[in-house]
Amino acid sequence: MNRNLLLVLFSLLSTAVFAQTGTVQGTVKDGKTKESLIGCTVRVDGTQIGGTTDIEGHFNLANVPAGTHKIVISYVSYKTREIPNVRVESGNTTAIDTELDEEGTSLQEVVVRANKATNTEIAVITEIKQLKPIAVGISAQQIQKSQDRDAAAAIRRVPGVSIVDNRFVLIRGLAARYNSVLINDVITPSTEVDTRSFSFDLVPSNIIDRMIVYKSGSAELPGDFAGGIVKIYTKRRPDQNFMDAGLTLGYRGNTTFQTVQSQTRSGLNALGLWDASQQIPTSFPARSADFNALNPLQRAAYARLLPNTWALKDLTLSPDIRFALNLGRRFDVGDVRVSNLTSINYSMTNQFSNIDLKLYDNGTIANAITQQYNDANYARQTRLGLLHNWSARFSPGFTLEWKTLFNQLSTTETVVRTGAQVAEGYDVRSFSERFENRSILTTQLAGEHSISPLTKINWVGSFGYTGRWEPDWKRARYLRPTGTTGSDGQPAPFLIATPNDPTPTEVGRFNSKLHEYVISAIANGEHTFGNPTDREPNKIRFGVYAEQKNRDYAAHFYGYQAVGSASAAKQRDIATAFAPENVTGSQGSFSMLDGTRDRDAYKGQNTYLAGYVSGDVYFGPNANLTLGFRGEYNDQGITSKLNGVDTRLVNNKIFSPLPSVNFTYKLSDRTNLRFAYSSSVNRPEFRELAPFNYYDFNLLADIQGNTTLTTAKIQNLDAKWEFYPSPNELISVTGFYKHFTNPIESYLLFQGNGLAYTFTNAQSAQNYGVELEFRKGFQNSASAFLQNLSVVGNVSLIKSQVNVGDIVTAPDLSGTIQQYDIRGIADTKRALAGQSPYLINAGVYYAAPNSGWQWNVLYNVFGQRIFTVGNSQNPTVYEMPRNVIDLNLTKQFNKKLELRFGVQDLLNQYVRFAQDFNRDGKIGSDVTSQTAGADQMLRKFKRGSYYTVSAIYTFGRRTVIP
């Protein structure tokens, strides 16, 4: 293998050495103003070799035959310049720096209707280069090459970004709560009930124009961030009429064609919907006290109104399916240019995992197992999505847009758990049958106005809705003493565990619903001082942002109660145990109790008002200083019942002054030094504040909010060196430092019966590191293969430390706020939760435009990071690294049909969560022995490699609109 590799390298080197071509490059400027000219046509006379100048006036012509040539440079309204006798030597580069003079005669009026390209790699690199804050990004062009299915898969290609649970984004190792996400410049609400997170898998990749990740702050950006601010831009308007459709079939190892157990739900689940039978009948008493005051016979009568849908069925899983239909139209209505872009997406995917789950005694020796389970976890997910955008250009100075994005999603998850409570001496068989539905809508009306060549204004009015339902989540647990047998010598039967009082850990039915409405109004302005055609004109920017958010959440839990011993009913299998004949309320049967508490429902209100102003100060052509100030007022409240009375439990009103400074120094036309400072905040979310208690069946953990949380404050420092060898190439090194006051973190309560998490403010924290990024092409190579090759990579090295303090303010299991002295029982100093010490992304892309072939190989890995913070009784849990390799191959036929083949997660390494038993701040290689220095494997499973085949067909022919 080594010999073959050397031969290949030698062949490539030989090709370059003996090539009879060279390169011509240079810059073109205005002869009068000395400003760079963008878009000049540069060609080698008598050949087909040519190109255009980029934003810096630079051009690069590769593979020019050795010899003497005439170079011709032309540009609208400028005199064409011919440069004769340009000598090109084999393997060398000839440099030309020249100027063009304006035409002496006046031109007639030229009307140009065109859209600025924003979705190419060059466009994104150019945008990042021009931005004042430090930023990175990814284009639709690169996403298409990578065949990433959604925004979550695509954004992990960005420096300093990693993904948790295939949907939540971590930037610079900081948890998802430290990021702000905007879609088309409007802040998105959290898509999760229990955490502040945006689920990036909700955004299909085919509707994305580009994604920009801001690493430093500025006055124009929201102040609620620490990791970064992600702006997702959906496609705006087509540049041509088109209609195409795509179909993808997916095969997942360990899942597709396997037989699994699933629950019975209505046929509308395929569209992310459910029927009325899965809802609590309206005849049920609204208050738990009224329900529980009834006698067992009356309560059982209500219980029989709930359908007996506990039975599981065997299901053989078909391949995943994804379908997309995209339509673009442009037409004129009088003098108004109207365009429409519509995209419809549907997907149905399956995921099965055998999950090994262990809990430990955590006494004097490691790996002393107290509970040991295998979870057969099957989840089917569906998504129906719609993007519908209209744009009307009334004049060059006025454009109106209406953008709508809607997602209807569902998850049908079935978990069959088998194992043992080793310490108590019980065999266990548990069931969780859960269905979740989400509806997410955002619609925006936006306008862009050019008041004059010096003044521009844009505005957005937005409405957002998030709905989330968990109708009839059924849970049950069977127990039997380990090793016991009946009189017939057979193993003793399992019995359903029915506590006297309902508890989420035992048998019952859980329902929840959430409605959240967000209304936003945004206005931004920009005024240029002096000549707007100056290369670096002075500008002032200003704007306001107003948002009103209202959430209504309610949960209801009903637990089954045994009347008498009910041993015969308890022995029945899950399909028949709760049949109507066994739920009568009489002796030997089941009745029902309402376990709902007042704090299981809450209302959240948040008013957010912000205003900003920023301006540029130029110190000559090479130095630019941008000063900004943003003021944010936030009024956050939580209302819940206390002793049956609606009570406002949280009343957080805070004004945050947020200054920012961004300085750029141009070492050359292609090299910049950037320095940035910004002050930012991190506010708690509704769920983190609400006293509601939620049970996570998969993690065997309770999660509840903390009404005492306060806003965290962050100071951010960044420095970046960036070099642009060519329009689509980049090399950069970034260093950063962040200091937190009162950071918000998940906290494990110190209690002996199970796991219980809440949210707390630590005293302080710091986070610092370095990021390296490169994008390299080989356009100047004499090898045709290398000309079509590009390499992309980034590495992030990060370190953090949080100072928790000696005293933690948090609720106990009853919701009562307590002061916990954690000295000796928990780490007072450690790494931030969710922070990875390193992140690595790399990719090799090949595209041969003439043949229609494209392929790429992509790699991603993150360092071990804290998944949940622990204590001496339940040590901290770390998520372990996984090496992920993706392969993609694309072939295009006649610009009509495109076929794609992809393999995601080729290595299929284990997803692993381990406990730091020896409390040394890391997980060692020894996770099985019972020595004091060992660590413990908590959760382990494989997702399976994923193979996809896609076909995309364009109907008719793409019609370019002049």
From TrEMBL:
Domain TonB-dependent receptor-like beta-barrel: from-to ranges: 461-906
Occurrences of domain TonB-dependent receptor plug (ranges): 134-228
Pfam families tied to this protein: CarbopepD_reg_2, Plug, TonB_dep_Rec_b-barrel
Keyword Nucleus on entry: no
Signal sequence bounds: 1-19
GO cellular component: cell outer membrane
Cited InterPro entries: Beta-barrel_TonB, Beta-barrel_TonB_sf, CarboxyPept-like_regulatory, Plug_dom, Plug_dom_sf
SUPFAM superfamilies linked: Carboxypeptidase regulatory domain-like, Porins
Record keywords, A-Z: Cell outer membrane, Membrane, Receptor, Signal, TonB box
Keyword Nucleotide-binding set for record: no
Compartments reported by the entry: Cell outer membrane
Main location: membrane
Region described as Disordered: spans on this chain: 483-503
Family indicated by similarity: Belongs to the TonB-dependent receptor family.
PANTHER family noted in UniProt: PLUG DOMAIN-CONTAINING PROTEIN (PTHR40980), TONB-DEPENDENT RECEPTOR-LIKE BETA-BARREL DOMAIN-CONTAINING PROTEIN (PTHR40980:SF4)
UniProt-recorded name of the protein: TonB-dependent receptor plug
Native species: Spirosoma linguale (strain ATCC 33905 / DSM 74 / LMG 10896 / Claus 1)
